[in-house]
Amino acid sequence: MYAVRMENITKRFGSVAANDGVCFAALPGEIHCLLGENGAGKSTLMRILFGLYRADSGSIYVNDRPAQIAGPRDAISLGIGMVHQHFMLAERLTVAENIVAGCEPRRRGLLDRECARRRIREVSERYGLAVDPDAVVEDISVGQQQRVEIVKALMRGARTLILDEPTAVLTPPEVDELFTVMRALRESGTAIVFITHKLKETMEISDRVTVLRDGKTIGTVCTADATPDSLVEMMVGRSLPVHDDERTPPRQAVLLELRDVSVAGRKGGRARLSGVSLAVRSGEVLGIAGVDGNGQLELEEVVTGLRRPGKGKIALTGQDVTGLDTGGIRDRGVAYIPSDRLKRGMVDSFSLARNSVLGTHRCADFSRRGLLLENAVREHARSIVAEYDVRAESIDQPMGSLSGGNQQKMLVGRELARPHSVVVAAQPTRGLDVGATHYIREQILASRNRGKAVLLISAELDEVLELSDRIAVIYEGRIVDVRPASQFTERELGLLMTGQRNEV
Amino acid sequence: MSGFADVVFNINNLTATIRMATPIALAAMGGAFSERSGVVNIGLEGMMLAGAFCGVLGSHFTGSPWLGILLAVAGGGVIGAILAVFAIRLKADHVVTGVGINILASGATTWLMQAIWKRKGATDMVAGLGTWSVPGLRDIPVLGTILGVHSPLVYIGLALIALGWVVMFRTPLGLRIRMTGEHPEAADTVGINVRAVQYFCVILSGCLAGLGGAYLSLAQLNWFSKDMSAGRGYMALAACIFGGWNPLGGLGASFLFSFTDAIQMRMQTAQIPLAVEIIQMIPYILTILILAGAVVRSRPPAALGKHYESGHGR
Hints:
The complex is a heterodimer.
Chain A: E1 4-13, E2 16-26, E3 31-35, H1 42-49, E4 57-62, E5 65-67, H2 72-77, E6 80-83, H3 95-100, E7 106-107, E8 110-111, H4 113-127, H5 142-155, E9 160-164, H6 172-187, E10 191-196, H7 199-205, E11 208-213, E12 216-222, H8 228-236, E13 254-263, E14 273-281, E15 284-289, H9 296-303, E16 311-316, E17 319-320, H10 326-331, E18 334-337, H11 341-345, H12 352-356, E19 367-368, E20 371-372, H13 374-387, H14 404-417, E21 422-426, H15 434-449, E22 453-458, H16 461-467, E23 470-475, E24 478-484, H17 490-497
Parallel strand pairs in A: 3-10, 3-11, 6-9, 9-10, 15-22, 15-23, 18-21, 21-22
Antiparallel strand pairs in A: 1-2, 1-4, 4-5, 7-8, 11-12, 13-14, 13-16, 16-17, 19-20, 23-24
Helix pairs in contact in A: 13-14, 14-15
Chain B: H1 2-8, H2 11-36, H3 44-62, H4 65-89, H5 94-117, E1 132-133, H6 143-147, E2 149-150, H7 152-170, H8 172-182, H9 184-189, H10 194-220, H11 232-242, H12 247-269, H13 276-297
Antiparallel strand pairs in B: 1-2
Helix pairs in contact in B: 2-7, 2-10, 2-11, 2-12, 3-4, 3-5, 3-10, 3-11, 4-5, 4-10, 7-8, 11-12, 11-13, 12-13
């Protein structure tokens, strides 16, 4: 008997088929990975199962009985629960309020808060999901918020639990905790659908894997019979070559240097950065490893002049640039891939052509007497599109109409096309699919091999490990350790990132 | 300056404060419900005006001010429903729709007044609500003067506001409303009908503002005059925000606004050497100052003014 079975599901958004005849089935008591690149249709499929989208055609069976799911209410009553990638929690309400909303215990017409607390405690104790019912959601950590989401689904009697990219927001120890909870749920007979694009996690936790590509089912395999390579081939339709690791000899001139840089926090709060000293040399990638929110954003902003350090010095190729604005720092040879490309890297309503000269629009190549030289701008955009493999219909289409991967290629192309000696790459592959991620990482390595100094700030530990020559670990605004990458183990990094230095 | 102190610390100011705060507090609670569900309600002004007019209309045709009150609640509700259809179903900008509603209410009531009473400035007198004097309460010194004798709507209004607080913060419905205004998609995914909650809240806000409006025309006066809401709907919105989208907070804010208004009115008669126009400005200036301060610190419901369509978020 299958817990849920979906047959020949098709769902179109406009002319794009997000799901094209997809079949999927999960057994009770198994952890079933739904694997695929971004845009492969994993989330769409599960949103259909949860009633957030309606399939154009196809059928759904729950416990082998045909099911009509017109909305989340139907899905919930059929025992389907979903933890979304972006949490569905009202930040200013309490944990208990978020958990019981929609199925509130009542007493004489009023909300029975005591009963709510009791029921939450029962569920959280049974599966080891510690949550504080009276805490306000915005005050608790992301990992705790995720537990709230899981409790929320279980309280509604979920026998099939969908987890949409649950590990993307977690630290390595939190991932371990989540996996423990998932195993406990499996023991209790819950079917778990685990949406991911990470192979390592798939291999570690799942019993079976269904791979989607371009909205179609490629196949379902038992994890025991699969290898990471065989799964990649299923995901992307080809195997990815290993990064070319030719390189110039490292340990040359220091191109970017921070000396004792500090950034104050909010009044009364702890400093965002305190006493950070780093040096990045020509021909090396210095990776910053850390849990999101430990000063990475401030570091990115300080190095690119978006924020002035409270104290300390920043030097580029030996020249002091402390206090220069972003334009000044970029002109001195910093290529900048911002962590939030939608907010900082581009204007999504502008064409590719316009975006291709943002930041260089004043230089003599692209403007004369205050007017843009349209032909030169378009020529430039065309060359980036060709050189960086941007899949676009035309350079006149708005940037916002491209996929995330192509937007990022365009942006990386623009930055690396300028004369530069230092690359600041912040979360360069966040939200990108496997193919685009691979491409962007290759570009970063190529830049290093041409003798640039690369500062890589990434919340993806795998990325830091794969690309860095040296790794600096940041925790609560301090650099707690810097060593050549080969001298760290992943476990060690995980502990350092979460401030458990003594246990290393 | 002892004359000035007499003006400010006069017990009658408090009586007047309660009297004048009631309509604003009712409309402010309407605003709180609407905005807690995520719909900006700048149409409170028009809803109050419609309520004031419908109250007089009902009293005029039936001879019963209580039926007038019912019609006022219904009339406010209809205006609320218009806002709801535009803001929720048709996804119009909430502020633009609200302003449109205010203009519509002003024009429609003026035109209907001319059509029915053949008058341009104000209607004829109709049967009003009169006052209740509460036995026991009215005999207590000081408190009796402040609270003992008022229009029945004052007591009904205060009871409704207390009830409104309970509904918003102690009932499942209130939780669903707050969830909807904070995160409609979260509400949707736990099976809460976002649209139904929003329609309910916006129509309820119209009913409450309509009731507040009827207070102006059937309790303070016994007739309707052109544009008689005179900015109270905007003050109610201000009170709603200043009161932290909470019915009791809105009541407190309304008391504050009305207290300054009461002092202002007393100052006009106390022959203080200041132009009447300047004295009349005081409550409005205070409103601006308080709001400028409060708006900076207050945090509206997270999804306020945003449109939500189930199944279309990517």
